[in-house]
Each structure stands twice: as structure tokens, then as C-alpha cells.
Specification:
The complex is a heterodimer. By secondary structure, chain A is an alpha+beta fold. Helix content of chain A is about 55%, strand content about 10%. By secondary structure, chain B is α/β, with parallel strands linked by helices. The chains are: A alpha+beta, B alpha/beta.
Chain lengths: ~500, ~130
């Protein structure tokens, strides 16, 4: 297949339209599959987890984020250590005294811990009690990080610099991810370690460290205990205030989350109820039409005796209208079923695509023959795995559209080919009225029909491509439409390979 | 003459189907109540049952009758009439359509084309030695 490029346009890109087409000069549109999760606008049924431990996946994501954050800290410490090692004199000249050993040692220790956390997270993910194990791992990380931070605070200067305020990073993160009780525990641990550091330094167990050697800064010797207590108290008080504010704000956010989740659930329930109501109503509507249809068949089939030709014409009109309404009701039911969240789709089965296409064609041929429309078939053996009825709905609607919007006595071509990755592509091409480029992004909307389409075929339900869209989203089947007004339309259905499908040799 | 039982609450539809099937030489009876259908089958076993899925009292009554037929009448052929495509009609689960759970059942979608209906009936009867198609 030769691919060519349509003249690029911002318009096309903004609407998800692609600039690569099979047919030179035709506009193309790829149905986006990303919105598959909630394509119908229905909200998620699951309540968003309020705390990290409520959801294993979220917890894993957060742990991964903490680990990547930690790599940045490790890089900064390693950078400081290397700078001290390579340019210690320059730094000393600027009043900064850093011995390269401690930043490099802390960076190495943190690096090892980070690798251990990642390994723990991976093994915990495989464990049946993964959420509990990952939460234990997370607390271990917090405590180990606080110890490392206390070492850094000690070396930077626990009183001489603003380093103690780095504890606030942990406190704020704890407020975001934990309920107030647990974030308070993090605050108390942090402040406990800081006070322990000051006590050890004051008692002379460890000599105080300070990277700043400014003559403006007084030494630790001779600092009155009251001043020391005031200094430490300020740090503890400020941290406590930050914890209080952050936990209040995080609590308010969680409350909003909870309200949003409850609203989402109510919305989902209402959407589901509406879908069920629609299914039931359309189902009830279909039964009388089935009876009318059956009775018109009786009359036209001569089961009730001879009927005058004028009456036959009237009955045929009734039968045609009845069939049209039945078709519309069927389309509404199919769409409602595809969108219903309580309906269970049948499991995937192997689908013989050429056989499926031939079956759809045999249903369409009588209708196509009335308008002199013929089919050119090029069906290579191709088998995919999917929901059989979804595939039938997609192929049937695409073929039916090709016939409906073809001009009389034209040809509709349908091809089917397997792909090297185990999937298959079905391409349906008509030489009909085509679709204007600016309408392409809307053709999968419910009841959307272009003015030209309405003029050409009044009987269409406007739901065929909406059904194709829902089935495509459910089966992750890529759909591409290429078209030019007055020249025709090409629709490609790209069926994915089954997860365990053997790949073809190239 | 093969004896067919139509189980459908829609008398208009059932009447039209009865007319067509009788014209093809079948003996046909109609039962409009799903719960009474089993009793009727017990009284006189038909050669095949044409069974609607949805009944006013229960959306899945047809499936329940079909399962009861399987349990009590073995391989009695059943032709299920559904108003939507057969895979996921209203309120049904995959299990309802599992061949292991509901064996030897044929499906036909409403509105029914009579020629197709007659073909299906002849087909399911031909599959049984008890009552070949007339």
C-alpha cells in the first residue's frame, strides 16, 4: 500500500485527523482509542482512594515517585561531594567548608537504600498481601530517609543553617499522602531525630558540623541553653504549624475527593439506570413491531387469501416502515447494550474474518442488488480473537454504510488480510458520496449525519458508526476513515493480535 | 406430523407464526405463560419448542424455561426467539449463552423472517430421530 500525505493543516491535527492516507489527497481520521475507558462520558465506578494504602496501584506509583525523587537528592549530594573533592579550596575561600566524605557516603547509602526499596516494591507487588507489604516498606523508607536527613542536617549545621527546615518536605508529603494521625507521627519522628541530633551535639558526643565558616556566625561554644532551646523550639513550632496547615488543607482536599467520588457514583448509577430503562423501553417497542412485521408477512405471503394490488402496495409500505423502525430499535438496543456497565460481554473467541464478512455480505446482497451495487471481494484467510458479535456489528455496519452511501450501479470493494503480528485488517471501499473533511471527527457521534448523507439516504438510523465506535473501543480495534466528497470513502478496521498469538514469519 | 409448541406471550406474533407453520403441515400449539409451558410439555411432549426469551413477569424467563426443558426433557430441540443480538441481551450473562449450560438451542432474532423460521424449524427437527420434518 502506498502511503501519501495530504497537505498538512492545523485543522486536521487539532481534530485528531491524520495527515497520512492510503488514497492520495483524501482526508483521514483515526478513531481515538485512548478514551476507551469512559468513552460514553460515564464516570468510573471505583471510589478514588483517599490514602495511599487504600489502593495498591496508587501506592506503587507513589513509591516509584519517591524513589525517583530520591535519585535527585542522591545526585545533589554526590554533586556536593565531588565539588568538595575537586574544588575544596575554592569553596573554603568562599567560606564553605565541606569534607567530601560525608556527602558521598550519604549519597552511597541512600543509593543502596533506594535500590533496596525498588526491589522490595517489586517483590511486594507479587505478594498476595502486596498493599500491606508495600505500606510497611513505605514506613521503612520514611524512617530511613529521616535518619539520612538528620545526618545531612548535622553536617550542614543543625543550628547554623536553615537545613532543619528540610524536614518540612517530609512533613508536607506525609500530610498529602497520609491521614492526620500518621502525618503527625512523621512530624514527631522528624522532630525527635532533630532534637536528638542537637542533644548529641550539645553533650559533645558528636562534634557539631557546619559547612558555613562565616565570621559573622558565632560558634556553638558558649551558646546559652535558653538560646539553644529557643532555636530548637522555633524549628519545632514552625514545623508543627506547617503540619497543622498542610494536614488541614489535605483533609479539605480529601473531603472534596470523597464528595466527588460520591457524586461520580450517583452519576454512574443514574447513567446505568437510564441505559437499563432505554434497553427495556426499546425492547418493549420491538415486540409490537415484530408482531406487525409478522402479520404483514402473513398478508403478503398470501396466508390470508388474495389481496388487491393496491392493498399489497399499502402493506408493503407498512412492512418497509416496520422494518426500518425495527432496524432503528435494534441499533438503539445494540448501542445501549454496548454502553451498559452491568451487561457482561461474551468472552473472546477465534473469529474467521473472511467467513464473517461473507455472512454479512450475503445479508446485504439482496438490498445492494436492488440498486445495482456489486461487491468486489478480496478475502485472504485471517483469524483474530475477539467478541464475535462485536466484530459482526462492526463489519455489518461498515458494509451497510458503504452500500447505503454508494451511488447506484457502483462497486463496493472489501478486502481482508492478516498482519505479521497476528492481527488482521478489513478494508471497505465505496465510490459514493464521501464525507467532507471537517465532518470526519463527528461521524462516530450518535445520530450524526452529514447533510449530504441525509439527502442521499433518508432511512439511515445515524447510529451505525456509533455502534462501530463502541465495539472498537471495547475490543481495541483501530478504525480509520478516509474520504473525499463525491469520490468515496475507505474504512479500515485494524483488529489487534490476540495477546498470545504467534507472529508470522516475515 | 410434527408437533410444535410456541411459547410466547405476544398472541399476535404467536398467531402469525402458527398460521405459517400450520400451512407447512406442522401441528402447532401456543402457550402464552412461561410457567405453564413446562406443565404443558409434560402433558404432551412436543417435537420442538419455539420459545420467546422475554416475558412480562421476567426478562429472562425464556432462558429459565429452556434450562428446565434441558433438565427434564433431555434433547428436546428448542428455538429461542430474541429481540436483540443473541450474545448479550438484556439482563443475561455469558453463562446464559454458554453451550455447556444451554445445549442444543438454536437462536432466531425478532422480527422473524418466516422463510428463515421454517428453515430453522426443519433443521432442528431433522436433527432428531423422533420427528423428522414433514
Amino acid at each position: 500500500m502506498t502511503r501519501s500525505h495530504v497537505a498538512s493543516s492545523e485543522f486536521a491535527r487539532e481534530r485528531g485527523m491524520t495527515t497520512e492516507t492510503v488514497t492520495p489527497g483524501w482526508a483521514a481520521y483515526d478513531l481515538p482509542l485512548e478514551e476507551a475507558a469512559r468513552s460514553d462520558g460515564a464516570p468510573s465506578a471505583a471510589e478514588p482512594p483517599l490514602y495511599a494504602e487504600a489502593d495498591g496501584r496508587l501506592l506503587r506509583q507513589n513509591i516509584a515517585w519517591f524513589c525517583s525523587l530520591r535519585w535527585l537528592v542522591i545526585a545533589a549530594l554526590a554533586g556536593l561531594g565531588l565539588a568538595a573533592w575537586a574544588g575544596g579550596d575554592v569553596l573554603a575561600h568562599r567560606g564553605i567548608r565541606v569534607t567530601p566524605a560525608w556527602p558521598l557516603a550519604v549519597a552511597a547509602a541512600l543509593g543502596l537504600l533506594n535500590l533496596a526499596y525498588l526491589a522490595l516494591a517489586r517483590s511486594a507487588a507479587r505478594s498476595p498481601r502486596h498493599a500491606a507489604r508495600m505500606l510497611q516498606g513505605l514506613w521503612l523508607q520514611i524512617l530511613a530517609d529521616l535518619v539520612m536527613l538528620t545526618v545531612v542536617v548535622h553536617y550542614l549545621g543543625s543550628l547554623e543553617t536553615f537545613a532543619p527546615f528540610m524536614y518540612l518536605f517530609h512533613v508536607v508529603l506525609a500530610c498529602i499522602f497520609f491521614p492526620p494521625g500518621r502525618s503527625l507521627l512523621v512530624l514527631l519522628s522528624a522532630m525527635g531525630m532533630y532534637c536528638a541530633c542537637i542533644l548529641l551535639e550539645s553533650a559533645g558526643v558528636v562534634p557539631p558540623g557546619a559547612v558555613l565558616a562565616s565570621p559573622l556566625l558565632p560558634g556553638r561554644e558558649g551558646t546559652p541553653p535558653t538560646l539553644l532551646a529557643c532555636h530548637v523550639g522555633s524549628v519545632v513550632l514552625i514545623s508543627g504549624m506547617v503540619w497543622y496547615l498542610a494536614s488541614r488543607l489535605a483533609g479539605a482536599l480529601r473531603e472534596r475527593d470523597r464528595e466527588l467520588a460520591a457524586t461520580n457514583r450517583r452519576l454512574l448509577a443514574a447513567t446505568e439506570e437510564r441505559a437499563q430503562h432505554m434497553i427495556r423501553t426499546t425492547h418493549q417497542l420491538k415486540a409490537p413491531f415484530a408482531a406487525i412485521h409478522a402479520n404483514t408477512q402473513l398478508l403478503l405471503g398470501g396466508y390470508c387469501g388474495p389481496i388487491p394490488p393496491a392493498a399489497v402496495a399499502v402493506i408493503e409500505q407498512i412492512a418497509a416502515r416496520c422494518e426500518m423502525l425495527s432496524r432503528e430499535i435494534k441499533a438503539m438496543l445494540q448501542l445501549a447494550n454496548l454502553r451498559s456497565h452491568v451487561q457482561h460481554f461474551p468472552g473472546p473467541v477465534p473469529i474467521d474474518l473472511p467467513a464473517l464478512i461473507r455472512s454479512c455480505l450475503s445479508n446485504l446482497k439482496p438490498q445492494a442488488a436492488k440498486r445495482g451495487i456489486s461487491f468486489a471481494e478480496d478475502l485472504a484467510p485471517a483469524s483474530v480473537c475477539g467478541v464475535h458479535d462485536h466484530a459482526v456489528m462492526m463489519v455489518d455496519n461498515v458494509l451497510s454504510n458503504a452500500v447505503s452511501y454508494s451511488r447506484d450501479a457502483q462497486q463496493v470493494s472489501v478486502s481482508c488480510n492478516s498482519k505479521t503480528d497476528g492481527g488482521a485488517v478489513v478494508v471497505v471501499r465505496d465510490r459514493g458520496i464521501g464525507i467532507p473533511a471537517e465532518k470526519l471527527p463527528h461521524i462516530f457521534d450518535d445520530y450524526f449525519r452529514t447533510r449530504e448523507a441525509v439527502k442521499h439516504n433518508k432511512a439511515s438510523t445515524g447510529l451505525g458508526l456509533a455502534i462501530v465506535r463502541q465495539a472498537a473501543l471495547a475490543g481495541k480495534i483501530r478504525v480509520r476513515v478516509e474520504s473525499t466528497p463525491a469520490e468515496g470513502t475507505v474504512v479500515s478496521l485494524d483488529f489487534p493480535a490476540a495477546p498470545d498469538a504467534p507472529q508470522k514469519r516475515r | 406430523m410434527a408437533y410444535l409448541l410456541i411459547v410466547d406471550d405476544d398472541t399476535d406474533f404467536a398467531g402469525a407464526v402458527t398460521t405459517v407453520l400450520r400451512s407447512r403441515g406442522y401441528e402447532v400449539a401456543v402457550e402464552t405463560d412461561a410457567e405453564q409451558a413446562l406443565e404443558r410439555i409434560r402433558r404432551r411432549r412436543p417435537d420442538a419448542v419455539i420459545l420467546d426469551v422475554m416475558f412480562p413477569e421476567n426478562d429472562t424467563a425464556g432462558f429459565e424455561v429452556a434450562r428446565a426443558i434441558r433438565r427434564t426433557c433431555g434433547a428436546l430441540p428448542v428455538l429461542l426467539l430474541t429481540a436483540v443480538n443473541q450474545s448479550f441481551p438484556l439482563g443475561f450473562s455469558n453463562k446464559d449463552l454458554d453451550p455447556a449450560w444451554l445445549p442444543a438451542v438454536e437462536f432466531l432474532e425478532k422480527p422473524v423472517d418466516f422463510e428463515l423460521l421454517c428453515e430453522k424449524v426443519a433443521g432442528i427437527l431433522a436433527g432428531t430421530s423422533k420427528a423428522p420434518a414433514p
